[in-house]
Amino acid sequence: MFYKSTRNSNLKVTSAQAIAQGISVDGGLFVPSEIPSISLDEIAKLGAMKYSDRAAYIFSKYLTDFSEVEIRYCTENAYNLQKFSSENIVEISHLFDGTYMLELWHGPTCAFKDMALQILPFLLTTSVKKINCDKKIVILVATSGDTGKAALEGFKDVPGTQIMVFYPEQGVSPMQKRQMTTQEGGNVAVCAIKGNFDDAQNGVKSIFTNDEIKELLDKNSMMFSSANSINWGRLAPQIIYYISSYAELVKNEEISLGEKINIVVPTGNFGNILAAYYAKKMGLPVAKLICASNSNNVLTDFIKTGIYDRNRKFITTISPSMDILISSNLERLLYMLCGEDDAQIKKWFGELAQSGRYEVSDDVKAKLKADFSAGFCTDDETEETIKNIFDKYSYTCDTHTAVAVKVYEEYRKSTGDATKTLIASTASPYKFSASVLKAIEGKAPEIDEYEMVDRLYKLSGFDVPKELLELKNKEERFKTSIDKSEMKEFVLKALGI
Ligand SMILES: *Cc1c(COP(=O)(O)O)cnc(C)c1O
Q1: What CATH number did the domain enclosing 339 receive?
Q2: pLDDT tens, position by position, for the chain (497 residues)?
Q3: Among the options 4, 113, 149, 484, which is catalytic?
Q4: Element at 251 (helix H, strand E)
Q5: Which atom of ligand 1 lies at the shortest distance from residue 398's CA?
């Protein structure tokens, strides 16, 4: 198997090259040349394995240029009890009547991003070695909260790497800020930007594409790479938990082997739900993929009408990790749905860059509808859902997960579809304690972040992640706050070049 670019079908690279590079030189995203299959027999066998073995098994279908030893080095270093608080790595919790929560937040930073960012540093350093490159990898991240911390935790003290994270000074929750400013590790740097997330992201992009800086890095035997979900090394690990959890449900006799299930995913950049689509295309028995958005409902409209239009107001919500108007990974899906027509993709994404809008063909619209359903919900509905779920099922969910639950309830009401369903639960409620407490108690709590965690513990009974408790006594290491025009200097200084 090899990987090609969504904007150049003739390109052929190995998975190691695709991962090391992050994005193709033509601006396209790397996709596998074919989708490997998995049989029901294989899925049944996975049920008897532990998570890291299931991961190694599935990776071997995609990373065909990696040896078994290389794959196991990655999976075993990532998915273990030093990193995750649950032996199963992910947990499945029965919410009601054939509806299951797929808890993806038992990793060190309490959000689903850990599932990929714990393994990415190993995939990346192995890939770089495999392509005979001995440069130090420099990771730059702009974050609105979850990605930055998960990337820092994944890359901390990984030999051959250095990581720098920029966040908007006023744009992250107090807990998220504390998580980043107390970050440990000898190869990490964190810096606040006086500006919003877009400023941070634009700053990072302009450094990435600055030829002078690239040359300087090259002279010093360094190279940039990407840790966000345009990198195939972040997407592949997400396919695994869908297959793994299906195998788990079969093993626990919650479903029978071959029985189709629906999957609901709270969506932002379209990475997580795309991984579920890959799992389905591999042969996992999946009926509908339900794409849940908050008030930034550009994907809901797209799946319903085939028109992608980002010309709308950006809305700041209580599910900030889904506040996004350009979902990068959609490009991979559309490439598959339009028959790998790279010219067509270039046309649509050119239109998106130019006018912020494109409309797909009737054929693609029909294919979209066959696999996907979509809905969105407002902040008020999100809060109501947190409260309802808490009252009815004694289950506490975070704001992002609540969006998925609400959209699923609406879907089920309007279609009558009672297929058993897995809902991706993407963050621990403790990460968004203020919003969750407000939803349950009806008013905003006037206490500090740690008291909120205490209070939420008394209500929910969920174990408090030790990583969040430990923050209280950690020293603040990174206090620098700079103007966006100073990012370049900051990077060069941190690299000592
Ligand atoms: C990143 C994130 C999402 C969105 O995931 P995508 O892969 O970008 O669609 C949802 N919930 C939480 C908590 C996240 O951190």
Answers
A1: 3.40.50.1100
A2: 999 999 999 999 999 999 998 888 888 999 999 999 999 999 999 999 999 999 999 999 999 999 999 999 999 999 999 999 999 999 999 999 899 999 999 999 999 999 999 999 999 999 999 999 889 999 999 887 789 999 999 999 999 999 999 999 987 888 889 999 999 999 999 999 998 877 888 888 889 888 999 999 999 999 998 888 889 999 999 999 999 999 999 999 999 999 999 999 999 999 999 999 999 999 999 999 999 999 999 999 999 999 999 999 989 899 988 988 888 899 999 999 999 999 999 999 999 989 999 999 999 999 999 999 999 999 999 999 999 999 999 999 999 999 999 999 999 999 999 999 999 999 999 989 999 999 999 998 899 889 999 999 999 888 898 888 899 899 999 999 999 999 999 999 999 99
A3: 113
A4: helix 232-251
A5: 13
**Exposed/middle/buried for residue 311 (C-beta within 10 Å: 0-12, 13-18, 19+):** exposed
113 labelled catalytic: yes
Atom of ligand 1 nearest to the CA of 266: 10
∠ CA 2-283-235, rounded to 5°: 50
Asked whether residue 326 is assigned to any structural domain, the reply reads yes
Q: Residue of the nearest CA to atom 14 in ligand 1?
A: 321
Q: Which amino acid, residue 182?
A: T
| Number of residues that this document lists for the chain | 497
* pTM for the full predicted model: 0.95
113 CA to centre of ligand 1 in angstroms:
7
| 59 CA distance to ligand 1 middle (Å) | 22
Calculate how far, in angstroms, residue 107's C-alpha sits from the geometric centre of ligand 1.
Answer: 15
The answer to whether the CB of 104 falls within 8 A of the CB of 55 is no
Two tokens at 150?
């998960």
185 part of a folded domain: no
Residue 71 falls within a domain, yes or no?
no
Q: Which residues pair with 421 in a beta bridge?
A: 99, 262
Number of domains in the chain: 1
- Among the atoms of ligand 1, which is closest to the Cα of residue 431? 13
How far does residue 293's CA lie from ligand 1's centre (Å)?
10
- For residue 353, being part of any structural domain is answered with yes
- Domain of residue 349: give its range: 91-111+233-464
